[in-house]
Amino acid sequence: MPRPRGSGRERQRALHLATGGGRLVGYVRVSTEVQAEHGHSLYAQEERLREACARWGYECVGIYADVASGGRDDRAGLRDAMSAVERGDAEGLVFAKLDRVTRSMRHGAALVEWARAGGHTLASTDEGVMVLRGQLTNEALPFFLALAQVERERISRRTREGLAAARARGVVLGTPVRTKGTDPAAVRARELRASGLTIKRVAEALNREGYRTARGGRWHPGSVYTLLRRVSPEVLPVGGFARDRTQ
Q: Which residues are catalytic?
């Protein structure tokens, strides 16, 4: 029997484009739960991703989220997003800025190599398409990776200085306040989600019924998603932090 034409990598790319071409998986990230609770982040990033996909002619088939430092390589949301691409659900990842995905040159280089080797796409709403179906399209990518790492180091230094100043003022530092799984808001969020409401509708219902976050703030889709992922991940929507009518 004759061997199929093309290398194994070429056949893998052809199969990938036949199943995931024209679709992207979104990835959003914030560093702290405070940012997630105030909603200026996860949800705002999601809006930007969906708008960019529509503008570029792509379908956004799901959005995955992390509340974690960009310096961490082992983020569950990013891992799930990459797995979705590898399964053929989409041809690549879309994110708001490169520093949402990585703040390390080493990790960033590994991500680019993952995209090039697998024939995937990496697209940023701010920096544009960086890798298109395995082909590097943005020659400034190394510069963006270097900037992301510099910014990470600057944030770390500023955080250390802020903590030192707080200790000097006598501020007691400790574990941040979080909504517990047994708190009424968490119990109600599980009930609402189990009843079929979207993440966005759950947030609206919690606010309407007078529930507040552990810090006394209003609920946003990002903070609801973060809470449920921590206390009841089985009720989260398939495809990550999505808000379409079926999720």
A: 31
Question: What CATH number was assigned to the domain covering residues 8-143?
Answer: 3.40.50.1390
Query: Burial, 69: exposed, middle or buried (Cβ in 10 Å; 0-12, 13-18, 19+)?
Result: middle
Task: Supply 182's token pair.
Answer: 């047994």
Report whether pLDDT(137) > 90.
no
Could you tell me the two tokens for 83? 């797995």
- Residues with Cβ < 8 Å from 100, sequence gap 6 or more? 27, 28, 29, 45, 70
Residue 102's pLDDT band (cuts 50, 70, 90): confident
Q: Around 109, how many Cα atoms within 13 Å sit in the side-chain half-sphere?
A: 7
The string of DSSP letters for 174-188 reads: -PPP---TTSHHHHH
Domain ranges, ordered by start, for the chain: 8-143, 184-235
pTM check: above 0.70: no
